[in-house]
Amino acid sequence: GKLSSAKASANIKVVVRVRPPNEKETGDNSRMVVKVINDQLLVFDPEEDSQPFFYHGVEQKRRDLLKKAHKNMKFYFDRVYGFDASNNDVFETTTDSLINRLMDGCNCSVFVYGATGAGKTHTMLGHAEHPGITFLTMQALFEKKTELSSERDFELGVTYLEVYNENVQDLLNPGSTLHLREDGKYGVVVAGIKVKRIDASEELFEMLDKGNKNRTQHPTDANAESSRSHAVFQVYMKMTFKTTGQVRVAKLSMIDLAGSERGAATGCAGMRFTEGANINRSLLALGNCINSLAGGLKHVPYRDSKLTRLLKDSLGGNCQTIMIANISPSSISYEDTYNTLKYATRAKKI
Ligand code: ADP
Ligand code: MG
Asked: Cys bridge to 267: 12, 111, 221, 229, which one at CB 3.0-4.6 A?
C-alpha cells in the first residue's frame, strides 16, 4: 500500500562524490563538466562561466562555441560532495548513521558505484593516511560495541568475497567457487564460506589488503588497475542482551562495485565481452532492484544476478541502503559521468 512504499523509499540514500581532477585532467584537452552548486545540487556540463579568456591581450571566443550545446543539467541528490570532501566527511554524513540502525537489528548495505578511476576504492578503502569508509565505519562500530558492552554481548565476524563473471569467490580463503543458498531461517547463505572473527578495527587493514591481493584483476585500456569484479565485504553481528538473553542479529554489506563503464569504451572483445556482459548484468540488476524498491514496487528482481541474490536480505524491507556514486569532474569522462548520474538518479525515490 501507500504507507509501505513511502517507508521503503525512505530507506535508500543516494549521494554523489566528485573527485578532484588528476594531472591528465588539468591539461588543455580537458574541461570541467561537473559543477557542485551546493551540498545537494550539481550541474552536469554547465554553460561556461563568463570568465574571459585572453590570448595576447585579446579576448578569445570560447573554443567550443561551434560544438553542440551544453547539457546544463541539474541533478539533485541526498548529498553532493565536491573536491574538498574527505573520506571522513563522507563517512560522517553517510555510513556513520548506519551504526544505530545495525544496533536495532537492521541489515544495511553500502555501494560505491562509478566508472573505473572515478574514486570508488578511494572512498571505500582509502589508504592508511586516509582510511576509507569501511575502516571508519568499523571503527565506529567497535566504539559502539564498547559503549554498549555492559548491556549486550557482541560477536562479530566478517567475510570478504568477490563476484566475478557471475561466480562467487572467497577472497580471504581463495580457491573454490562458492554457491548461494536461500535458507528459510538465515536468509541468503553463502555455502562454504568461512566467517572470520574480528575483535578490533585495526585487524581490518591487513585482512582487506590480503583479500584485495586475491581479487581478479584484468588490466584494461582505461586503467591498468581496473577491476571487473564486485568486492563484497560483509559484517555479521550477533548481539545477546545480558539481562534477557534475547538475541538480535544484523548484517552490514559494503560493496566496491566493478567499473560501470561500457565494454566498448574499454576495448573489450572476445572473452572479455562476456565478462563485461556479466558485470553489466549485475549492475543492471542492482539498479533495477533499487529502482523497484525506491518506487515501492512489489516485484523486486533479486534473482536476475548473483550480486542481487547475495544481497537479497540486505536490500529493501527494513534494510537501509546507501549508494555512493563516484564521478570524475573532467570532460574526458563525459559519457561515464553522465551515465553514472543517470544510474544514481534512477536509484532515488520516485
Ligand atoms: P576506482 O576504484 O573507481 O577505479 P580509485 O579509487 O582507484 O578509482 O581512484 C582513481 C585514482 O584517483 C586513485 O589514484 C585515487 O587515489 C584517486 N582519487 C580518487 N578519489 C579521490 C579523492 N576524492 N581525492 C583524491 N584522490 C582521489
Ligand atoms: Mg577500484
From this structure: 221
Q: Average pLDDT of each block of 10 consecutive residues along the chain (350 residues)?
A: 44 96 90 96 85 62 61 96 97 98 97 95 92 96 97 96 90 88 79 89 85 71 60 96 97 94 51 61 88 88 93 90 97 95 86
Q: 349 CA to middle of ligand 2, Å?
A: 27
Nearest Cα neighbor of 45 from 348, 346, 333 is 333
**Closest listed ligand to the CA of 327:** 1
Q: What is the ipTM of this complex?
A: 0.99
Counting Cβ atoms within 10 Å, is residue 128 exposed (0-12), middle (13-18) or buried (19+)?
A: exposed
Q: Taking a C-beta distance cutoff of 8 angstroms, is the pair 75, 221 a contact?
A: no
Residue to probe by mutation, ligand 1, list 19, 81, 223, most atoms within 8 Å of CB: 19
Sequence-distant (6+) residues with CB within 8 A of 58 are none
- Phi/psi region, residue 13 (left: phi>0; alpha: psi -120 to 50; beta: rest), is beta
For residue 27 the three cell numbers come to 591539461
Atom in ligand 1 nearest the alpha carbon of residue 19: 23
Which residue's alpha carbon is at the smallest distance from atom 11 of ligand 1?
117
